[in-house]
Amino acid sequence: MSKTAMGARKWLLVLAVVVTGTIMFPLGEAQALSAQDPPTPPAPKERQSLRLERVWARQQRVYDRLGLLFDHTQQRIDLAQELIDRAKAQGKDTSAVQAALDTFSTAVQASRPVYEGAKGIIASHKGFDANGKVTDVELAVETVRQLAEKLKELRTTLLEPARALREAIRAFREANRPN
Q1: Segment 66-101, tens digit of pLDDT
Q2: How far is Cα 114 from Cα 4, in angstroms, rounded to an integer?
C-alpha cells in the first residue's frame, strides 16, 4: 500500500473516532423558548447605573488633571517668559512664541471660571453618593451632562492655544537649532 493511501486511511480512522465520540457524548442540549416563555430582559437600570458611575469617575479624573494644569500653569508661563526674554536678548526672533504664549495665558485665565463652575458640580454630585455610586439615575444623568458640558468648554478654550504654543516652540527650535 502506498504512503498516501495509508495517510488517507489514518484520516478516515480519526474522522470516524471523532464522529463516534460526538454521537456518543453530545456536547450539550439545546432548548428553544416556547411562545409562552418570556425572554429574560437585561437589567437596564443596573447597566445604566454602572455606566454612569464609570463616566462620573472618568470625568472626575479629567477634572483633577485639569486642576494640576491650573495649579502649575502660571509657573510654567513665567518660566517660558524668562526663556523668551533670554532668547530675545540674544537677538533671536521670538515674536511667534511670544504671541502664542500670550494667547495661551489669556485662554487659561478665561477658562478658570469655567473650571471653578465644574468644581461646584462635582461638590454637589447630585444623583451620586460620596463614593460615586448612583442614588438617583435621572439626577446622575443630568449631573454627568452638566459636567461634560463644562469639560467640553474647557477643552475648546484651551486646546487650540496649547497646540499653537507647542507648534510655535517647535518652529522656534527648528529655526534656532545649532549647526
Answers
A1: 999 888 999 999 999 999 999 999 999 999 999 999
A2: 78
> What grid cell was written down for 48?
445604566
Instruction: Specify whether the CB–CB gap between 89 and 177 falls below 8 A.
Output: no
Percentage with pLDDT > 70 across the chain? 75
User: What's the whole-model pTM score?
Assistant: 0.67
- Are 63 and 147 within 8 A, CB to CB? yes
The tens digit of pLDDT for each residue in 118-137 reads: 999 999 989 999 888 999 98
The backbone torsions φ and ψ at residue 128, rounded to the nearest 5 degrees and listed phi first, read: -125, 150
